[in-house]
Prior knowledge:
By secondary structure, this protein is α+β, with helices and mostly antiparallel strands. The chain folds into two domains: 5-71; 74-127, no CATH class. It is 31% helix and 21% strand. The chain contains five helices and six strands; from the N terminus they run E-H-E-H-H-E-H-E-H-E-E. The strands form two sheets. A three-stranded antiparallel sheet has the order 1-3-2. It has a three-stranded antiparallel sheet with strand order 4-5-6, with no helix packed on it. The N and C termini lie far apart (45 Å).
Amino acid sequence: MKDTFVTIASFEYVADVQILKGKLESEGITVFLRDENTLNSDPLISNAIGGVKLQVYSNEKERALKIYNAIRSYAVDNHGNQIVCPNCKAKKSEAYYERKSIFHKLFPFFEKRKYKCLECGIITKPE
């Protein structure tokens, strides 16, 4: 059904999603940015509402994900090397924050960074 939307990714800031939006639109995929105007008027509430969500029609999801995965950047360590998953050895990890406590929800920059493998889903701590 073309009238339903699927969220492909969410970004903390509106500026972070603009290149991906342009790439998807250049490939003929219709893109919607949910909460874009809210964050343009008050970017400090990004964590509270889950950032700006990049959405596409559900029938364009697979194409959009393929393009997104081809151009996205993955997590790197302090030396610029890609994070390697200790479980499946994939180099497709992204920063992951649990934000379980109210303290970390209010002050997410105090939480220690972890990495989530996008291939097998395992969550690891940096060495």
